[in-house]
Design brief:
The chain is α+β, with helices and mostly antiparallel strands and 201 residues long. It has nine helices and four strands; from the N terminus they run ααααββαααββαα. Helix 1 crosses helix 3 and helix 5 packs across helix 7. The chain starts with a helix and ends with a helix.
């Protein structure tokens, strides 16, 4: 493929996932490349990221944390919003967070009932599905109701009252230098205001 074919394919992809209609002129080719890569590899459903962008544009939080401005280099001055990555890793992050914050309410209630009845009780095999459901689905719902779900990052910039969507990134700070290099190489060319914004951050 030559460059014009790639550009057409990228724009068509952005249209198909609703990104072009939602924030035309305010998303980078780097973001689209990440979304294409995630979709082709089967590790990310781009609709989840577009949903987070839609909620940002509408001023809604959904179940995730509020957007946060990065305070530390190399992403200082930019903002990030969490999104749900596909796969077990993201699920495990929220299960761990939910256990730390809420424990296992189903199990706690079983203990209270046994203590109130002055009985010694044991878990049975038929209790396990409800226990697992409370750990996974129950705690996820509790986190979502507090807008405390965690996930990976959608990186964006604020300029003249609008959001410019740049790329996706992982929590892992060891990758942030590489993400910044990509932003400098691609996004700063597409959105020249970023050069000054990043220099002053």
């Amino acid at each position: 493929m030559d460059e014009s074919e790639l550009a057409i394919d990228s724009l068509e992809f952005a249209r198909r996932i609703g990104l072009e209609q939602l924030v035309s002129g305010r998303y980078s080719t780097l973001l689209v490349a990440n979304l294409i890569g995630g979709a082709l590899s089967g590790v990310q459903n781009p609709a989840k990221i577009v949903r987070e962008i839609r909620q940002l544009e509408q001023g809604q939080l959904g179940g995730f944390k509020a957007p946060i401005q990065n305070r530390h280099p190399p992403l200082k001055g930019l903002w990030h919003k969490h999104y749900q990555q596909d796969g077990l890793g993201s699920l495990a992050l929220n299960v761990q967070k939910g256990l730390g914050r809420f424990g296992i309410p189903f199990f706690d209630e079983m203990i209270r009932e046994a203590e109130a009845a002055s009985e010694e009780r044991y878990l049975d095999a038929e209790d396990v599905p409800a226990l697992v459901d409370d750990i996974v689905r129950g705690n996820r719902q509790r986190l979502a109701s507090q807008q405390a779900l965690t996930g990976e990052w959608l990186i964006f910039a604020k300029h003249e009252g609008q959001n410019y969507y740049l790329t996706t990134a992982f929590h892992d700070a060891t990758t942030h230098d590489r993400v910044r290099q990509q932003i400098d190489a691609v996004c700063c060319v597409e959105f020249p205001f970023l050069v000054d914004l990043l220099a002053k951050a």
